[in-house]
């Protein structure tokens, strides 16, 4: 604004306040007009211009144009931005031998660079970032103070003379980047300190290196993410449409899950049995240098062991990753908040967020109604928390599974940090109804606040309604793995009719036992047994497709659990129906992560198969019977998988239509399944319904906290 005002010869001032940017300009009427017209068009890349409102004032005779100090005491909103990928200008400098920042791994400017992960407090100013320990040299200072410079007020501004530098942990290296690149090319696993945490890297084409990484990380099958040098390199790995390319090269730089190419040339261990690959582009100058020097795609997976949170402090990384990484490429700019890579999946229509974290957080998400100052504690797995006030909700970074001490600590620290950043002192605390969720326990421990319990699937429905600005009633098909039902059974295949303020359960999947509780999640064959008990009676036949490791003794034992119900709650979980079908199809009898069987079942779908299994009123017993008949008849599993998906899509659309509502919501973790999502959407739209799908927030439990916030806002309004 300063630049534009000067250019047009206007006088006045500009400042940040709690509502955004406040500006007064005076001068020739035509120049003022031009200013207002050019302002939104010429806003800098990271500015989010939501709206511009203006009115006419008496001229005050301001002598020049100034940038004024922000008034203190206001409640800040947009003062902390998400981390943003290296901009084209900085990238050009990075690879320009004549530039003073040639090959400097920390080049950044007002239009790009670290933000959220380095901010320790507000106002957003260098002393309250992890750059506080670096004094700008004269050249950097001059850029920082010059309103015409691209680095005017760029808080992390730095150069090789004054800023952070690279090193190898545990030794003095003349050329840390060169040694790390050599190690990668020689087949080593290198821990790389990035923006929101450490990655573990190795050559994606090197089967021995990838397999070694997998076994050291104790990660059995879950796919590893890849980093490709640029879009051209990414196109060799996965099939990308224009939408996916925009997403992948956007400043948020998420991991984009897309269909892998036959000739992708990556090691088999990168993503065993997955038809998709997750690929991202470099998002920090350090990554750009690394990928350019290695010259081929790298595995870049979060640096952790098994399901622990990503390592982000140097001491923690050295300790926890010592047995995994051969070499540590580190630097001396501390990471204040860990932020995992965000993940999106390309689908027809709109991309689907799977994990919303680095690059997106802490940008606020609008609420369609005014909220009191509130905290929503989220679910148990894929946890995020959410703070809200007025029409704004700040959904935190991906925290993960709270059932680990490290993650729980990060949940508490994250909430404290956000309360300070956005000056929210919660009067209302929203939580799940599950009494054993650690997020629920945290909420209930807070005193002097109003508690609002929100049913899990209502929160899924509300999250999708709220992000679309919808305050009316809709029918929601909410399909996921687990959620606490008010009747104390495990819900997860629900048709709900409701709005932000309440809901009714109008239909649900046929209920079965969850034999052995949690064990059934890791052993999908148990769900096959539970469904066969429903269709064949208390002593179902052991289907040969389950494989030899399911002995008749184990089978009978699980069938007995279903009959007597010990430690086997009743469930309408759609995730578990997918597990049962996948097990019956011989996809897998054991899973190493939740939803694995369903992911592999979706991958089998034969797109040319037009058939569908019956599922009247979401009763899947006839589905299972038809599927068993196909199996016995030797029908290919690709066709069986397709008939199952199509049958469920039709049944879901019918259940939604039966409600008489004209707007339908599709959410819950099961809708990460692209085939199911696209086909159900198509059936509903053909029938004339408006279909809302999660966009900004994931359909999985990462979106629960925002949904809880929307419900709590409606109930306390
Ligand atoms: Zn830049
Ligand atoms: Zn400098
Ligand atoms: Fe859920």
Question: What does this entry look like structurally?
Answer:
The strands form 5 sheets. A 10-stranded mixed beta sheet has the order 4-11-5-6-10-7-9-8-12-13, sandwiched between helices. A 5-stranded mixed beta sheet has the order 20-19-18-23-24, sandwiched between helices. It has a 4-stranded mixed beta sheet with strand order 15-14-16-17. Helix 15 (524-536) packs across helix 17 (574-584) and helix 20 packs across helix 21. The mean pLDDT is 94. With 717 residues, the protein is α/β, with parallel strands linked by helices. It is built from 22 helices and 24 strands. It folds into 4 domains: 2-67, Alpha-Beta Plaits (2-Layer Sandwich), CATH 3.30.70; 166-331, DHBP synthase; 364-468 and 698-716, Nucleotidyltransferase, domain 5 (2-Layer Sandwich), CATH 3.30.420; 512-665 and 685-690, Nucleotidyltransferase, domain 5, CATH 3.30.420. Fe (iii) ion binds at residues 456, 460, 480, 483, 668-669, 701. One zinc ion (ZN) is lined by residues 87, 89-90, 108-109, 111-112.
CATH class of the largest domain: Alpha Beta
Instruction: Tell me the total number of β-strands.
Output: 24
Report strand %.
15-25%
Please give the share of residues in helix. 25-40%
Q: Overall 3D geometry? A: globular
Summed up, the helix count is 22
